[in-house]
Amino acid sequence: MSKEAKLVVEPRTQMGSAACRRLREKGLVPGNVYGHNAPPTPILVASDVLRPVLKSGAHVVDLDLAGKQDKAVIREVQWDVFGKEICHVDLLRVDPNERVNITVPIELRGTAPGVLAGGILEQPLHQLTIDCLAYQIPDSIQLRITALQLGQAIHVRDLELPEGSHAHAQPDAIVVHVVKLQEQATTTEAGPAEPEVIGKKPDAAAAAADDKKDTKKK
Asked: Quick one: which of 1, 21, 80, 152 is 20 to 30 A from 172 by CA?
């Protein structure tokens, strides 16, 4: 699920590539905050402040910009060619009361004991449409199947969703289950078929031959 963190940033007055390069040399990351019909605001944030937030996996932050509080989504992070230094960050303001409909993937975690017992894992539902607060959009719905036995199923009602979120699918809809391996019916091979007499049934042909013999004797 989406994690949250607090991020304190400052307005940025230095613009342009050269100015941004100088900021990076001082351990500062240039960026922008935009969204909700407000003009983009250039910002800067200390790299040692931003890095732990990114490392924590947070996608939503309680943004403090010059004392003003906002909810914001980390929209884009640019790294250097070696993937070590943060070059730029973009943040998108979101209304904490805005609800959205979003379809998110369902990711299975672990191995089901029922599969080890000879069953087959089937996942009828690979994604789920939910409505949730805009700042609580999950990247995915992670589902642990390490307790799923042969013949058991996990339903939509069993999923762990962000607080206050609702699934559009029926609660009884099966997300994943372990079913028994169906035994294929064995077919008995038939012996070679006897050739049929074209135009007459075998018994009729034999009867006709006997009639001819009786006629000749007479």
From this structure: 1
HSE of 86 in the Cβ direction (CA atoms, 13 Å)?
23
pLDDT in tens, 49-62: 999 998 887 778 88
Give the angle subtended at the CA of 96 by the CAs of 94 and 100, to the nearest 5°.
75
Q: Which residues of 118-157 are buried (b: 16+ CB within 10 A; e: fewer)?
A: ebeeeeebeebebebbbbbbbeebebebeebebebbbbbe
pTM summary value: 0.55
d(CA 151, CA 10): 57
* Order of strands across the sheet that contains 166-167: 141-144, 99-109, 127-133, 166-167
Q: Give the Cα separation of 164 and 130 in Å (integer).
A: 10
**Element at 54 (helix H, strand E):** helix 47-55
Nearest-angstrom CA–CA distance, 156 and 162: 14
pLDDT tens digit string along 149-183?
999 999 999 999 988 899 999 999 999 999 998 74
Torsions phi, psi for 180 (to 5 deg): -75, 150
Q: Which DSSP state fits 114?
A: H
For the chain, give me the number of helices (H) and strands (E)?
A: 4, 13
